[in-house]
Amino acid sequence: MDFNLNKSQKEIQKAAWEFARGEFDKEVIIELSKEQKIPDNIVKKSGELGFIGIHYSEDVDGGGMGLFEHVLVCETFCKKDSTLGAALMFSGYAAECILRNGGQSLKEKFLPQIVDGQLTCTGAFLEPKQGYDLTKVSTTADTDGGDWVINGKKTLVPCGNTAGLYVVLCQTEAKADPATNGMSLILVEAGHDGIFVDKISQNLGSRMMPFTDITFENVSVARSNLIGEPGSGYGLTQNFFMENRIQIAGQALGTAQGAFDRALDYVKQREQFGKKLAQFQITRHKLADMASKIEAARYMTYYAAWCFDNKKIEPHQASMAKMTAARTAMEVTDEAIQLLGGYGYMTEYEVEHFFRDAKQAEIFQGPPTIQKDIIADSIIGKLK
Question: What is the pTM of this model?
Fold first, then answer.
């Protein structure tokens, strides 16, 4: 299988790099990261240039391309800066649920605004003390033939304090057996009475994507805001998680490459005992290992994205890509800090926040243990 980029993909990659070089100001990023804020002007510019919605269909003003192209942009942005790059590419987090499964009216109303960077979206899936186990959901959405009325609490909602839209996983059929057959996805616009941001986290990494707890108290939402069919929410959420894991693999890939590039530049300039650090065999071998891991993760990530676009994807492929790319990012960023020595520990040299962002990529959308369970289920199958 040939993963050489075609002309269009190379142009996308080049355009993303030129945008990042022109707009990603290191000093501004450092300051905004301390405040856990994302620059709205750059989100809008990114949207206007077509980066945010590159994998959205053209009927909602998207680029009409695939997840593969989205991964290319994510990798390129995160190579320049992992914190801002991830925040830009996930400014429409969970909007894929609307794109893949929403009714035409929902798509036409909201997706063009997300594509243009005018509106941000997030997913409210997880609940306190449950982790990524979604087989039981306490948040309910009831209706007596009128609007949905939502009650419950969601945790670890990315950018929940600034998002304009929430894709909320709710229990809509209390007596469903199993409970997963009674879950639905409902789109909730921010600003409704009864929505409370309970807690804004202080993240180790991904400082432009703070996580929040959100409480819904008798929040009334139109019945037409249902995404997909009633009772399909669990399956649609799992499908989104699979797609998003490939996107995170792209984020991790760019994070690893960005740290590697900075370490390589440093050892080619830094001298010790009258020689460039890059001339010492131990340094050369470290660089060789880092580059090999990145290349292996790249092919696995590209393959998963290609499978998704060609409707050949399986959950374990997305988990393999995410787990491998995130592990690579952790190992490469850690080694990059070692190569820079004390400078690697300093914010202004950037490698330290690549390391912190690598950890976020490793645990977001399920840590390695969850990915291994998904992969093992596929390998082992049903036992007799």
Answer: 0.95
